[in-house]
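Lecture notes, unit on protein representations.

Consider one protein chain, 87 amino acids long.
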Amino acid sequence: MKKLFLFTTPKRTSSIEDYELDILYKISDKFSLGDLLEYSRWTEGNINFIYARFKGGSVKLKYIEGKEGIALIRVKKKYLNKNKDFS
């Protein structure tokens, strides 16, 4: 299952790694993706990109710090069936 998620990003008050992990954990909680397995990041100008793999799926994320972001969330079917509370 694929979902598109639009959100606003807060101003950063911590390190870039903590900031991005906070965003990823919030997305994981919202879409019941489970534990974060790995992620990579890169920047082009003022746009940041993240690709993250979770136990229950993956996230491709594009955001501008303190403005807005967009995420493509893919949930694994096997994991979706185990977590019936997915909304």
